[in-house]
Amino acid sequence: MNSSPITARAHTNIALIKYWGKKDMDLIIPQNSSLSLTLDHFYTDTTVKFDKTLPRDVFTLNGHLVENPKVNHFMDLVRKLAGIQIFAKIDSINHVPSAAGLASSASAFAALAAAASKAAGLDLSRKDLSRLARRGSGSASRSIYGGFVEWCQGTDDQTSYAVPVEEKLDWPIGMLVGIVNSGQKKISSRVGMQTVVETSPYYQGWIQSTTADLKSIKKAIQERDFQKVGEITESNALKMHALNLSAQPHFNYFEPMSLAIMQEVERIREEEHIPCYYTLDAGPNVKILCLQADASAIQQILASKFGQITFEFAKPGEGVRFIEA
Ligand SMILES: O=C(O)C[C@@](O)(CF)CCOP(=O)(O)OP(=O)(O)O
């Protein structure tokens, strides 16, 4: 066990091919494989120090003491893996608006997996780090790597983990992220996706369609076909959200501003002839895939229409790494 505190930094990732349903809730085995882009702009720094004098885990988020059962459960997994019974001090700083569909759980659990396992004296491979992060939050399995990342669904704890598709990305693309609402979302991803699995009549169609999308997008990435990557991304996101609209009870994450931004992105593409495509996750925030050279032109158009919303640009980011606190 490491006596000194360990700090890890992990970046958030945004899925172009969505994970939206589990086969196994405890092991977090997904219904389908997914693909994401790790972003450099939003990240989490997490410091972990095991301390024999602690009666329980002590967790602070952005400087505030919080109780988080998912973190406690995760730390139990780490203790079991390392064969220790000691509690830890965990300090996490989220440079991401938490829980607003900006995949803050992805960067958070990837950073926690790296810092906690190393502080517990483990030296995990990136594959095993991805497996461990997955137990905290499915999408966190992808933030272990940078660039384009695929989470291979696998069938069990050993075979479900992410792999880098293209980590050192030499393609000048990125995402504009508009924070429509950084408040706590109504329905968590965990609840939302399970409702869909259990009640949407479209779920099997989704599995077939998203599996085909994954194959097509990997080919389009290889061919640097930005239009194809964008079209598949936008279509896949809308199919995911169609599941929510068809669930019982139905739900959706859109706010009026989300739809207005989505329509404006389509207009910019069709009338201004600037290639850009949107995606949304379990929240109202719109992420716009674009080429780096077009980012400021798109930002200016959006600022003229939605002055109250800032659209921050993120380039492809790197995988999880240890840093000096
Ligand atoms: O990231 C994606 O593929 C798509 C989503 O972001 C939603 F749009 C899912 C994120 O789910 P997550 O928070 O990882 O759920 P957990 O495993 O129940 O913790």
TrEMBL record:
Provide the Gene Ontology terms for cellular component: cytosol
GO BP: isopentenyl diphosphate biosynthetic process, mevalonate pathway
- Say yes or no: keyword Lipid metabolism present: yes
- EC numbers: 4.1.1.33
An annotated Gene Ontology molecular function? diphosphomevalonate decarboxylase activity
Q: Where is the Mvd1 C-terminal domain?
A: 175-308
The record, for Pfam families, names:
MDD_C, MVD-like_N
Name the source's superkingdom.
Bacteria
Q: Which UniProt keywords apply?
A: ATP-binding, Lipid biosynthesis, Lipid metabolism, Lyase, Nucleotide-binding
Cross-referenced InterPro entries, in alphabetical order?
A: GHMP_kinase_C_sf (IPR036554), Mev_decarb (IPR005935), Mev_diP_decarb (IPR029765), MVD-like_N (IPR053859), Mvd1_C (IPR041431), Ribosomal_Su5_D2-typ_SF (IPR020568), Ribsml_uS5_D2-typ_fold_subgr (IPR014721)
Q: Where is the Diphosphomevalonate decarboxylase-like N-terminal domain?
A: 10-162
| Enzyme class at the top of the EC tree | lyase
| The keyword Lyase belongs to this UniProt entry's keyword annotation | yes
- Family membership, please give it: Belongs to the diphosphomevalonate decarboxylase family.
Under the heading PANTHER family, the entry gives: DIPHOSPHOMEVALONATE DECARBOXYLASE (PTHR10977)
For this entry, the protein name equals diphosphomevalonate decarboxylase
What species is given as this protein's source? Answer: Ligilactobacillus araffinosus DSM 20653
